[in-house]
Amino acid sequence: MENPGTTPSLLSYPRHRPKLKPAPFLPMSRAEMNALGWDECDIIIVTGDAYIDHPSFGMALVGRALEAQGFRVGIISQPDWHSADAFRALGKPRLFYGITAGNMDSMINRYTADRKPRSDDAYTPGAEPDKRPDRAVVVYAQRAREAYPDANIVIGSIEASLRRIAHYDHWSEKVRRSVLPDSKADLLVFGSGERAVIALAHRLAAGEPIEQIRDLRGTAFMVKPGWRPEGFVEVDSIAIDRPGPVEPHPDPYAMEPVGATSVAQADTQPIRIIPAAERVAARKADRAKQVIRLPAYEVVKDDRVMYAHASRTFHLESNPGNARAMVQAHGVGPGCRDVWLNPPPIPLTTEEMDWVFGQPYARRPHPAYGEARIPAWDMIRFSINIMRGCFGGCTFCSITEHEGRIIQSRSEASILREIEEIRDKTPGFTGTISDLGGPTANMYRMACKDPKIESSCRRLSCVFPGICENLGTDHGPLVRLYRKARAIPGVKKVLIGSGLRYDLAVRSPEYVKELVTHHVGGLLKIAPEHTEEGPLGKMMKPGIGTYDRFKEMFERFSKEAGKKQHLIPYFIAAHPGTSDEDMVNLALWLKSNNFKLDQVQTFLPTPMAMATTMYHSGKNPLKKVSADSEAVDTPKSGRQRRLHKALLRYHDPEGWPLIREALRAMGRSDLIGTAPRHLVPRDQPVVLDRSGGNPGGGPRRTGKAASPVGARRAPPPGRGGKPSR
Length: 725
Prior knowledge:
Layout: H1 30-36, E1 43-47, H2 58-68, E2 73-77, E3 96-100, H3 106-110, H4 136-147, E4 153-155, H5 157-161, E5 167-169, E6 174-176, H6 179-183, E7 187-189, H7 194-205, E8 219-223, E9 233-236, H8 263-267, H9 276-284, E10 290-294, H10 297-300, H11 304-316, E11 325-330, E12 337-341, H12 350-357, H13 375-380, E13 383-385, E14 387-388, H14 399-403, E15 408-409, H15 412-425, E16 432-433, E17 435-437, H16 451-456, H17 476-486, E18 493-494, H18 502-505, H19 509-518, E19 523-529, H20 533-539, H21 544-560, E20 566-573, H22 580-592, E21 601-602, H23 610-617, H24 638-648, H25 656-665, E22 686-687, E23 700-701
Parallel strand pairs: 1-2, 1-3, 3-4, 4-7, 9-10, 10-11, 13-17, 16-18, 19-20, 20-21
Antiparallel strand pairs: 5-6, 7-8, 8-12, 11-12, 14-15, 22-23
């Protein structure tokens, strides 16, 4: 197993093909291969997105990094998955297929939080829907195997990364097994994959069989039960954090016979008693040689307490400095196999980040798409990714599970050089850089003050419940970067489009002043998410008082700059731990602050997120899961989720009937009326049809309202599209 101190640099490998020159675009056809003089590809990347040769898109980022190592890389973009023919378009890859669903999980890309099909796809030419299948990684991997049964299949991207172990799937409403056995892939690469993919390519090129490559960090694979590297000791996860059964409070109104077994009790599996000696041995063993045995898929799919325990254990093993390997059984009897997960990848150094982002990207879509508009490309065309990772740990967000919590920053020189490339190479540039950011706008170069503390820390967040005293929060490097960026000739304005972590920003008035004075285009996205302590605690977000402090600074510095600027707050409806009363209080806060939201977000349980565990299990994995540990009530019914969304849009008449009904049921009829203290009026507005009246005679009442002025679709997900959490 690779150790953190011995991991080779991306810049240390000899080029596989020393004379290979960068292609204008990575080829998508045989004709392009012929023009480059290639008879075959070493690696073929299959992606669910349109191929845009820009470092904000995973297929380009990994493809160009492999090309720089001397490998011939081809792209199969949005193939017709109904047969294997499209997967033979570039021939058989000499080393492996790299399968990715794209920049988003395919189910999130295709469906809303309410499981309704989306009408468009921001990552497709013309925004056409249905250009990728459900669970694209599995489908693409199976078709690639059908095309060439003896080809090596490697799956990756955020979809594979977030589905690497048994996970709750919102769209099927059940716990699904790891994506590995369904895809039949040889290897899964999770997290930011450059380090693992480059090492894998060189080792395969040297003749090493893929089934023997078992020591790469950031990879997972299937093995027979009992397999483990020499010297490794298996530790049962319940020896580390012993769970217990859920004991729900009895319903006094339930008509249940005495002695009947509840569903929760029937689902609960017996917990093995771990002897004290075994628990002590687990704590004392060499962590680098331990593998943690998670509860099997067959256990967690039926037992919600064990699912919460497995989720908690998994997240506690996320720090590359001290994470242990994990293993989870899938199947029973002769067909049983283990999914083995190596520890997360070692974060890239600044030098490596500069190398990855400094490749000769064309910075535009492949010419095959002609003039077709690709919304995601429009969003990031003039933006720059300055860092990756997030130490916020928000429970509803999957950035930490994928990119990790250690911030990996590019150098100032690398970023400024990319701005000049945008100025000189990107069509349509008029002088405005739309974003200098990443998962969060203002975590650039922030890190733990002590590397030893960082490597041993097991906290899920560096900023919750408060900012860790060991976290460096200096915004000075970012302020200097902003100043140099806007001083580049030809650059008129540099905006910040990524969401701001305002609890960090308030620690640096200099940064807030710099941001507000020079880098806000009238509106600044910010994500308080809620106002009430209950849901905020389950989100691992700061209290609304921090938002108030930032708002005061924002308004003061805007006034000093002579600018009229506004904050655009984002909130989540129906998050685990949110009561109807919490949403009413949030709606009252919104009204008192005169916020009328056009874009609102209903909680979407994404694979492997901690909030998804709360949603599915009803337990709080932020604390030890036990028989009497905290239960989390979650809005799940369609009616309650609609109510919470309607309360966020309290000003929209369409939701008023539902809000009035709920307020009366809660004993809050005092909030119904026309006075300023009221939330909604008693009556629906009268709306005339186009003919000036109701054809049936007289005006009609309606719950519908015209689209609010200024309403717009949410921008495509990804960096810059929504505020960071």
